[in-house]
Design goal:
2 copies of one chain form a homodimer. Chain A has 217 residues and is α/β, with parallel strands linked by helices. Chain A has helices at residues 12-26, 42-52, 69-76, 94-101, 145-148, 150-155, 174-184, 201-216, and strands at residues 30-36, 58-64, 81-85, 111-115, 132-138, 158-162, 189-192. The first copy, chain A, has a 7-stranded parallel sheet, sandwiched between helices. Chain A binds chain B through residues 37-39, 64-67, 69, 88, 90, 117-122, 138, 140-142, 144-145, 147-151, 163, 165-166, 169-170, and chain B through 37-39, 64-67, 69, 88, 90, 117-122, 138, 140-142, 144-145, 147-151, 163, 165-166, 169-170.
Chain lengths: 217, 217
């Protein structure tokens, strides 16, 4: 008797993520899934990036378990934003993002920044339909995080290291962090930035623009 | 026909947690489940607490997805420690702790500090058999965290606010944080501390000693 072996069955999440990707592609929207620990500076980085992407129309999806604090911060800057409250879930999934997309005017934006729930573990496992996965690490968290959260550091296309303005006040060995991150994920570019001083934001935005351009071709 | 309604069925995790609690009680070991974001300073707080609890014998369980960095740091101080690597799981569960307890000399310690995986969401949902749940927040994470992670802030008996030495260098409104935390959890005491300068550690340790004493009665 022949035994059937089923391979490459997409999870329900991956199926919905593929649909999101298609909707976003048709609308020429380049999408970034931004992941980080709580308080690493996701919203500040989103705002700094929007400023640096001058001329490019950006929309934002804010993911939080509870509250609309981040969406209010983004809306104040005149940026179109939808807040997802997961109500306890520790990550965004493709279905939540699908619902958010249905509530956005995709024809009015070129770039979508999705701010995931603050969590360095679970969000790494869920595709949302994004073009790029970006991790924001931050200096006060310490330089050993790549060793402790390898799943997240492996999953991403770029690593932003935020809060470099705090380097004089905390123990953080930049060479050690870079070595650890590169050891786990040799392909991800690392961008040290400070959302407080603006340092490093231009280099990150330049790389992002290049990626947006290449995808649009 | 009578319909049977089953109530108060313990989850498997809660059953194992109850067993852990019983084992720890019999061995007169007071147990603390320490939860926090990645890089909030769990290990530093554990070491500072052990120093402040002078004379009380402490054992440590370190929970991480990967690596033995924290266990090595604790072992260097001559403290008995077992490392749990969850291999991807975003939280410790009672079963993992049961395995760790089987590998410790419980008769040689009075207090067990369990350092959970760095995650402000999932660990709140899993009992381990502890006497106290403690959250370590940290100043660089920002003062809005109680609103964004209400499950964690609700679950705990005490909130340590670490890294107060960084208050001059970041935006953080202490009154706003306290108001938010107290609004969500009026019972949890808040202890502002700095593991770098040692400030506030005595007050936290004093409260902890009182709890240990009351439980021993």
């Amino acid at each position: 008797m022949e035994i059937k072996v089923l391979k490459n069955i997409m999870s329900v999440n991956d199926q919905v993520a593929a649909k999101n990707r298609e909707v976003l592609r048709k609308n020429h929207v380049f999408t970034i899934n931004i992941m980080a620990s709580p308080g690493a500076g996701k919203t500040s980085t989103v705002l700094q990036t929007i400023k640096a992407l001058q001329g490019i129309k950006v929309g934002v999806i804010e993911g939080d378990i509870s509250s609309t604090i981040d969406a209010e911060t983004v809306a104040k800057e005149g940026v179109p934003v939808v807040q997802i409250n997961t109500g306890g879930e520790c990550h965004l999934d493709a279905n939540m993002v699908q619902n958010a997309l249905n509530n956005m005017s995709l024809d009015e934006i070129n770039v979508l920044m999705i701010e995931n729930v603050g969590n360095l573990v679970c969000p790494a496992d869920f595709k949302l339909g994004e073009n790029l996965k970006v991790l924001i690490a931050s200096v006060p968290e310490g330089d050993d995080k790549p060793y402790k959260y390898p799943g997240m550091f492996t999953a991403v296309d770029a690593i932003i290291l935020n809060k470099i303005d705090l380097l004089p006040y905390v123990k953080f060995d930049m060479a050690s962090f870079t070595k650890a991150a590169k050891g786990i994920n040799g392909k991800a570019e690392i961008f040290p930035i400070s959302c407080t001083t603006g340092e490093g934001v231009t280099a990150w935005a330049k790389w992002l623009k290049k990626n947006i351009k290449n995808t649009a071709k």
